[in-house]
Amino acid sequence: MTFFNEKIDRLNTASVKWEATKEIFGETDLWPMWVADMDFKPPQAVIEAIKKRADHGVFGYTFIPESTKQAIAAWVSKRHSWTIDGSWLLYCSGVVQAISTAIQAFTEEGDRVLLQSPVYTPFFEMIKQNNRTVVNSPLILEGNQYRIDFAAFEEELKKGCKLFLLCSPHNPGGRVWTKDELLQMGELCLKYNCLILSDEIHSDLVYKEYKHTPIASITETLSENVITCIAPSKTFNLAGLQASVAIIKNNTLRKQFDDTLKRQGFFTLNTFGIIAMEAAYLEGEAWLEELMAYLQDNKQYVLNFLQENLPEITCIDSEGTYLLWLDCRKLGLSDQELRASLLQKGRLALEPGTKYGLGGEGFVRMNIACPKEHVIEGLNRLKMAFK
Ligand SMILES: Cc1ncc(COP(=O)(O)O)c(C=O)c1O
């Protein structure tokens, strides 16, 4: 656990989280708990593998070797009880690229693409950038937890949607959808002929009482109707290495996706992305177990702190991800006032809830994947902002 206590200076590494606050928030000197990367080093095996490859010194074109495919398949099988074949895999620089590629491959301009707000901002952006139509079936907040409005979901499907962008586990709400919920969504999509892109980038970051189910693993028919996206970037903090995986069992869909990647001129991953991915999936499991225990502890600290110091702010029950979705509505402030207090009084950079679409008003998202002392600093600033 002490590994995760190490405070690492990330300044002068072109870190978006630490050094791009001026561009994003209009201010410097903010305490950064916003964008979803961690302030931790990855497993030592990943660093060693990168160093070894760097020492070789020749960095010509690289393909994705069989050993990497096997490492991915073994990880998915062990962690998520889903047997996949190496031949089902395609690769993208990031999951956002995979989302955009799926939109280009499986829909036409003007087509309706379904999502469930509040949700990760690029879901909206990729639909709009590709001139498709955003169709929203908002999640319902019941008590302290999000659930799906299946009747509204079906209504939208009935009107015709080509693609559903599912966020599983859910960012920003931290829900780890149950098998029943996934099955119900999956069957409705099958009924109305709607493909599913399941963004499972947070699937390894699930707290111990919960279990992630890949939606494609539930039934044979569903496995043919889903494009599943995973990545070592979120799990092992490798976002700068730009490597993600699309798992597509259906041959026709996989060919369509692959052809679209080729049209983009995208053929393979960065050498270090491949090396890091293989090492992480082969040797990162013990590190991940420790990480989850550390995050659980950070989460509990935040919950206790809020209860004692800022009871007007409540945290949505977080079953997975290292992101906490804080309900600030009882403070009675507008989103502009929330932002101004956080930035000017607290000097704290959190993601504004409004970025996540309908239902995000009055919320902020806090990233707790940092040393406990950093969390404490952030919470003290939160208190300064609102007390
Ligand atoms: C749900 C979700 N999808 C995708 C991403 C980013 O993926 P990538 O960096 O691989 O494009 C994030 C990052 O926070 C995310 O939360």
Poorly predicted runs are none
Relative helix content: 40-55%
CATH topology of the largest domain: Aspartate Aminotransferase, domain 2
CATH superfamily of the largest domain: Type I PLP-dependent aspartate aminotransferase-like (Major domain)
Average of per-residue pLDDT values: 97
The total of beta strands comes to 15
Protein name: cysteine-S-conjugate beta-lyase
Cofactor: pyridoxal 5'-phosphate
EC number: 4.4.1.13
GO molecular function: cysteine-S-conjugate beta-lyase activity; pyridoxal phosphate binding
List its traits.
16 helices, 14% strand, pyridoxal phosphate, C-S_lyase_PatB-like, Aspartate Aminotransferase, domain 1, cysteine-S-conjugate beta-lyase activity, pyridoxal phosphate binding, Aspartate Aminotransferase, domain 2, 2 domains, PyrdxlP-dep_Trfase_major, globular, 15 strands, binds pyridoxal-5'-phosphate, seven-stranded mixed sheet
Description:
- By secondary structure, the protein is of the alpha/beta class.
- It is 44% helix and 14% strand.
- The protein has 16 helices and 15 strands.
- It folds into two domains: 2-43 and 285-386, Aspartate Aminotransferase, domain 1, CATH 3.90.1150; 58-283, Type I PLP-dependent aspartate aminotransferase-like (Major domain) (Aspartate Aminotransferase, domain 2).
- Helix 5 (66-80) packs parallel to helix 13, helix 6 runs parallel beside helix 7 and helix 15 (335-346) packs across helix 16 (372-386).
- Pyridoxal-5'-phosphate (PLP) is lined by residues 36, 94-96, 120, 167, 171, 199, 201, 231, 233, 239, 244.
